[in-house]
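Let us work through a complete example step by step.
Step 1: write down the sequence.
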Amino acid sequence: MNLLNIMFRILCILIGVEIFVMLLFSLYGVPDTLWRNIADALLLALFSAPFLYQLVFKPLKRHHRMESDMRQLHVVVRMLSNTMRKRDSSVSQHDSAVTTLARSIAQGMGLDDDQVEGIRIAGTLHDIGNIWLPARILAKPGTLNTEEFELVKQHTHYSLDILKDIVFPWPVAEDVYQHHERMDGSGYPLGLKGDQINVGARIIAVADTVCAMNAHRPYRPAFSMEEILETLEKQRGKKFDATVVDACLKLFDSGFSLDDASLR
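Step 2: predict the structure and record it as tokens.
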């Protein structure tokens, strides 16, 4: 039924109601001016009701439904995050640091709160695909050989497989899938470059690199913050987005600490 038909039916009903009210009040001797005012008020209320529903109550109902969907979505994110942490307890500190740093960089770049929230969730899930990798590879005390590294690179595909069917209001699956891409095209899995890479993925790439370099590994000690920031400066506009690097450097200049970030 189209809008014109609906409006015609409403108009017919309103005219019928007014005639009924007019006859009823005439029988009881209600003054003409009074019943006309009452009828006009009743007509206005009845005529306004459908529009009031469309303009106020329907959007409000939709808003409540969206809030409910968001609560369910955050439950799913927590479940996925907890699954990663149960698989590898060392993941918790790294993911917390990456998430906090990525969110702070996004805020420093002036992104709106909605974009920041999407990047925060992508940061939380950026390595979700690792749950499909062999534990012996993830826990290997030495440097990975070529074959092992190629296997580890598959975690981006696994992440996409896990996240692609979850309906996010942000490009979470794409950001997670692309966070190992580099601005010069030297990254993986697709060798994307420049603007082909999502902004969220560029931010997570920097946050993940900083946090990974800051972490101790069995085969190497943690890099100092001076070394990490120097690496960012050298790769600014090359492997990493210049705007993202600038926001990250400014963040640390203002006193940001990875020790605090890993605890949030």
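Step 3: interpret the result. The chain has a mean pLDDT of 81.
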